[in-house]
Amino acid sequence: MSTTVAKQDVTKQDEGVDIAKRRASEGKRAEQKLGMLLCAPAVVVMLAVTAYPILYAIYLSFFKADLRTPDANEFVGLGNYITVLSSPIWWSAFGITMFITVVSTSLELALGMLLAIVMHRTIVGRGLVRTSALVPYAIVTVVAAFSWRFAWTQGIGWLAGDSAPLTEKWPSLWIIILAEVWKTVPFMALLLMAGLALVPEDLLKAASMDGATAWQRFWKITVPLIKPAILVAVLFRTLDAFRIFDNIYVLTSGANDTSSVSIVAYNNLIRGLNLGIGSTMAVLIFITIAIIAFLFIKLFGAAAPGQGRS
Amino acid sequence: MKASARRRCPKLAAWLVVGSLASATLAACGSGTASGGVPVVNLYGSASDADFDKILGPCNDAAEGRYKIVGNLIPSDADSQREQFVRRLAAEDEGMDILGMDVTWTAEFAEAGWIRELTGEKKEAATADVLQPPIDTATWEDKLYGIPRSTNVQLLWYRKSLVPEAPKTWDDVLAAAKKLKAEGKPYIIGITAAQYEGYVVGFNTILSSLGGTLVNEDSTKVTVDDKAVEALGILESLANDGLASKSLSNSQEPEVFAQMQNSEAAITINWPYVLSAMREANKDVAADLGVTRIPEFAPGTPSRATLGGMNYAISKYSTHPDLAFEAAMCLRNPESQLKGALSAAGNVPVIRSVYEEPAFVKAYPMKDDILAEMETAVPRPKTPLYQNISTIVSTTLSPPDSIDPEQTADELKEKIQQAIDGQGILP
Amino acid sequence: MSAQTETTGKKVGWTAVNILVLLYAFIPVVWIISLSVKGDDTLNDGNFLPRNPTSEAYTTIFNNADFLRALGNSIGICLISTFVALVLGTMAAYAIARLDFPGKTAIVAMSLLISMFPQIALVTPLFKIETAIGLFDTWPGLILPYITFALPLGIYTLSAFFREIPWELEKAAKMDGATPYQAFRKVIAPLAMPGVFTTAILVFIACWNDFLFAISLTSTNRARTVPAAMSYFTGATTFEKPTAAIAAAAVVITIPIVIFVLLFQRRIVAGLTSGAVKG
Questions:
Q1: H/E stretch holding B95
Q2: pLDDT tens digit sequence for A261-296
Q3: Over the stretch C187-212, which tens digit does the pLDDT of each residue have?
Q4: Which of A110, B51, B218, C85 could hold C150 in an S-S bridge, CB 3.0 to 4.6 Å?
Q5: Could you say which residues from 81 to 140 on chain C have a Cβ atom under 8 Å away from some Cβ of chain A?
Q6: With a cut of 0.95, is the ipTM above it?
Q7: What is B153-306+382-420's CATH number?
Q8: What are B70's strand-pairing partners?
């Protein structure tokens, strides 16, 4: 007798579970549909604009191709890659680019963090400070670069005096880094400041009442909370820093071995009209950046978008 | 309010995109033919020269309604101009008719089949009464591919108060500078030796003056030999003997000009524009400026200056090449040439008769030096691979103070041969 | 009394720091302004401040119809690009941060890969496509690439912000009877404002200063934007750079951005709004 009753209960339970499961899967399907719908326009635009160019560039990297002789493309397999990767020109540019990227991004992160704190917390003239801090980022890069070149040219610039720093490799590199850092610290600061805006005041107040110093509050509360913002800022800044072009082009045109990989790619692709080699370099730059991005996301753990729910 | 706007946004955004696409397609129609169906001859190049409307206007009048010349703007530096031209010609763009071609592009564009050869009557008309060197710059493999329109050669500028006698040979220049340095006066010799095209121009001048070349006639073999070693030696000693500016390896035309303007340099090699520009920049120095032809690098043999300038070429994809040719011929007829020479742009003419015009003689006191250099001027290496070779030369020779004549010459030889064979990558 | 001196002390401290920031930002800018008012005779004299300032360069560029047209093009193209990129980016970022659907990781990876590919190699194929479909030298011809290259940064930034907003808020709103849209509008969107306005500023500046696409995908002043137009400025001869004109143009085109930023930065509010989140 008790078993029949128990059996009835179980069946009702089963039915209940089934209904719940059906509702959950319907809800899940609706969620999936909504997700895909929301992403669709962005995906369509991105693919429409870049699918053919990217695939075409990758395709060309396996050919000997010259823009002046479009009918004479010759399949060379990995020949272009071997040529580029065995050339000291490429590796020298690669080393320079890595150096500039690491140094400038580190400086920008440190200075950007400081600037973000000022922009976020200043109690006097907040609008003025925030807007002014962004002006370096707002100035057209080539004009800023040209003004730095002018400023550092012997005799006609206010910074050079009687020296000629742009004629030597290491002074030039530091001037290039100066131009880059001056220009993009605001970019970092802006992203970090928006991140700082998400840190709850109450947490910080509570911590300070518990006796934590500003330094401790910063490292133990603020930094962990703005990790996603730091990741976005540093990731995108690194990707851009690796592709540095304008500042070097204007300041030294790559003289004294200060070329970056983008300058070498530009010279081969646009000056030499060598589509095969140029595309190969573009693909190699792309692969390098992809590796950097991958390492970043791994290092910073689950701070990448779309992973896990908070 | 922002939140509610966000809900209407997708629709609004969609309309915006549709609207802009629609307006753009509407705007896209209606180029190529002027109102009333008069064919438009699109000129790319030289249209932004000072006072160009004084040349364009009369030529449009002379067209008598058969066509209309429209001057289109292009970027101001030669590399960007070439980039635009190449991209559009490779896409067979019909919207370009007359191209203002830098003299170094002739072989490249001709080999790629982007510009039309001028033969028969057209060839005769294009070269009538024209100085020979500019004609050479428009020729590739003995075929004429452009209408010479303006030319340019560098000159030796010096301060008359510091260098009383015009230097005749390169040794004279060095001696004068040494003497001035010992006397504590401005002594720098200014040349353009930054890593760019202007450096190749200078190197080409020295090399050609010594009788050397970089590639053979049909650009199949590199011809770097001991003359190149000698030329490199001259550059190296200039950089290392303390007679050149500290920023020699960063000097382009504006820097060399500034060195003269600021009384740092006593002797510079620069283009003819220095005279009119110095009058604006520093009247005292301008009044003290002397000019002569480039000094002899091989004593006894006149120097061979490198040619600059521009030719008008007719695009292969032009839909009315004959009209374009006629238009281009008008744009560079003797009247137009004189106007161009007298304007702020200072375009040195290619037509012999213009050099005798009184107004020209007055504005160009150095006209005889220019003509004398024209007798022996040389183009840069004529090869479809000129951009590659130029990049190789300027990078291999930079910076001037680290040149080792023998070694650098070997490097040049190897890299140029690689470029000709289609191997290797450009720095 | 001590509270007052504390506040005054803090104010002085912050003012000093502010001045440092202003110096950092403005010293090179003052140099650019100085270049724009230097005449031919003082351009090369190496002085930081101009001796004989002249407004010649400004008169030149404002008399230049092409420059004014380019300014109009820049404003229009950049506003539209920013707006559309924000809309598309917000939708996608919300989906990526809050919803679960197949292909999510692929979309994120793809958008990142797109932003990583060197644009120099994409210009010529893009030029070919645009000439083929008639978008060359038009506004959409520039708007579409700008949106495309702004989306990855937008999606990443915005999804980072959406992720930080706790689920409980949405659930609480839904339990209070709000529809998903209302939950989004009234609860989530305001909290994501810092991210939205930050992205807006960055996208606008990136579009405003872009040179590569502007110079490659336009040929007349129908669609040419200011950075490209500046490279068309000529000096008296090919060997003289129109330094003063370029500097003047740079100063002029920075002003709209300054206005844009001034308006938007106020929206990047400090902290979360009243009591939305506790602990």
A1: none
A2: 999 999 999 889 999 999 999 999 999 999 988 888
A3: 777 777 777 888 898 899 889 989 88
A4: C85
A5: 88-89, 91-105, 107-108, 110-118, 120-122, 124-126, 129
A6: no
A7: 3.40.190.10
A8: B42
